[in-house]
Amino acid sequence: MNSSSSGKSPERFLTGKGFYIVLFLCAAVIGVSAWVMATGNEAMRKSEQDELIGGNHRVETVIAPAAEGSDWIDESEIAPPELRADALAEPTPEEPEEGVEASAGAAPAAPAVYVWPVLGEIEREYSVSALAYDATMRDWRTHRGVDIACPEGASVLASRGGQVVSIVDDGLYGTVLTIDHGDGMRSVYANLAEETAVSEGEWVDAGVTIGTIGRSALCEIAQEPHLHFELRQSGACVDPTVFLPS
């Protein structure tokens, strides 16, 4: 009977409380092993880091005070330009120097000065909004300039300074000379003698002789000798008497 009870004792132990004791001991062994492995790995990583950085040294940053009499360096002055505060600030307008008044803008250009191209009475006026009688054509038509009566051979002057841009032989108005004044204005001189005193491309000042009165304008041949004078603003004819001195 004793042998029978001793043979069954281990079985009872495993099926009873002993099973849980064994299970607890196994779990404890596994936990201890995991802790030992984790601790060893951490120690190894720390050792490797110490070797890479030359050991576990303490680094301290010491800011030396500025030497006596020296200027303190602002960190913003040595920062990259894109990080400096003054790089983002709007520029401050410069103040005028003492005793100098600020200019409100460029000085307005002086008004253009015109002179009469010839001396004489206006024989035929400028008329584009109303028809005027044409003695040569014997009809009523507009007139894009003014006809200034003067003797044949009289000197014709540049009404204003500019560049001679063309000298042509027109089928109706004869020898025609055009001066560009550079601001959209052009002056036109017709019924001139064939020979002119200037050439194309030449710069002339106001009052300079550019030619003489002729009889070349066939469309106005019935009139007394005169200068047919036009002013064109941006290509459109305007009344010359508005610009000529009164």
Report what the structure shows:
With 246 residues, the protein is an alpha+beta fold. Among the domains are: 51 residues; 121 residues, Glucose Permease (Domain IIA), CATH 2.70.70.10. Helices cover 22% and strands 26% of the residues. The strands form three sheets. Strands 1, 4, 6, 7, 8, 9, 11 and 12 form an eight-stranded antiparallel beta sheet that branches. The protein has a two-stranded antiparallel sheet with strand order 2-3. A two-stranded antiparallel ribbon has the order 5-10. A hairpin with a 3-residue loop joins strand 6 and strand 7. Helix 1 packs across helix 2. The relative contact order is 0.12. The N terminus is likely disordered.
Features:
single chain, about 250 residues, alpha+beta, eight-stranded antiparallel β-sheet
Briefly say what this structure is.
With about 250 residues, this protein is α+β, with helices and mostly antiparallel strands. The protein is built from three helices and twelve strands, in the order αααββββββββββββ.
**Helicity range of the residues?**
10-25%
Q: What's the gyration radius in Å?
A: 54 Å
CATH A-level architecture of the domain at 122-242: Distorted Sandwich
N→C terminal distance = 159 Å
Q: What's the shape? A: rod-shaped
Average of the residue pLDDT scores: 77
* SSE ordering: HHHEEEEEEEEEEEE
- Count all strands and give the number: 12
Biggest sheet details: 8 strands, antiparallel
CATH topology of the domain at 122-242: Glucose Permease (Domain IIA)
Class of secondary structure makeup:
alpha+beta
Count of discrete alpha- or pi-helical segments spanning 4 or more residues: 3
The H-level CATH homologous superfamily of the domain at 122-242, spelled out, is: Glucose Permease (Domain IIA)
